[in-house]
Design a protein that fits this description.
With about 240 residues, the chain is α/β, with parallel strands linked by helices. It contains nine helices and eight strands. Helix 1 crosses helix 9 and helix 2 packs across helix 3.
């Protein structure tokens, strides 16, 4: 199975290393993406959310289908928009500590912007739940690997058009919030659970840690993603 791995804010394709190694060992074909404006020497100027979505769609179109999309944090909205654009091409969407945001809103328009980008903020910007298990050593490692996020990726409104996306099976790897919270949002009709309520097939797998399990619980994240990918049907022969 071909698996496209979409990093969250401040991360590039290399951040998926524990997961890519586990997927390859399980016989899958991982494709970790470094999105526009985030490669060494690239400018963030003019890069918007749709540029990241279009980059994922282009990668999808070059691979056997169906395939699996994996998105961490802000990369979840990118994965969900790509699934909306190509629902028949996606066997499963896996969201790591993130939800499928509805159309019209930004991923996060409260982060501090510097010029055309959002650098990794001071740790005080994050909630305590985000930082669980992220000790001083891991914070230093994250800081060293962090890439400024193009500002418009964070602030542009999400665009969704095809209700066929709701037929794509979804796995949510719940790290800083328990599965019970998601089920409550679905049952209570909370606004942030709107997309979840319309899904035909939703699996929630708990992986208790902070917001960056690829740093704090890499082996467990890798196993969880491999298990979720294994539940997806094989790609069609070309």
């Amino acid at each position: 199975m071909d698996v496209l791995l979409i990093p969250g804010f401040w991360l590039d394709g290399d951040s998926w290393q524990p997961v890519t190694e586990a997927l390859a060992a399980a016989g899958h074909r991982p494709h970790p993406l470094t999105l526009p404006g985030k490669a060494p020497g690239e400018s963030a100027a003019g890069i918007g959310l749709r540029d990241h979505v279009d980059a994922v769609i282009a990668a999808m179109d070059a691979l056997p289908q169906p395939l699996v999309l994996v998105g961490h944090s802000g990369g979840a909205s990118i994965a969900w928009a790509a699934a909306d654009a190509r629902p028949a091409a996606v066997a499963r969407v896996i969201l790591v500590d993130a939800l499928p945001f509805p159309a019209g809103g930004p991923i996060n328009d409260e982060l501090p912007v510097v010029g055309d980008a959002v650098p990794l903020p001071d740790w005080s910007v994050f909630e305590p739940e985000d930082l669980v298990d992220l000790d001083d050593e891991l914070r230093a490692r994250f800081t060293a690997m962090a890439v400024p996020e193009p500002a418009r990726v964070a602030t542009d409104p999400q665009q969704l058009h095809d209700d066929a996306r709701f037929a794509v099976p979804m796995t949510i790897v719940a790290c800083e919030f328990p599965a019970a919270m998601l089920h409550e949002a679905i049952a209570s009709e909370a606004a942030w659970g709107a997309e979840l309520r319309r899904l035909h097939a939703l699996e929630i797998v708990e992986l208790p840690t902070g917001h960056w399990p690829q740093l704090t619980r890499p082996a467990e994240l890798a196993s969880t993603v491999v298990a979720a990918v294994g539940a997806a049907p094989a790609a069609s022969a070309l």
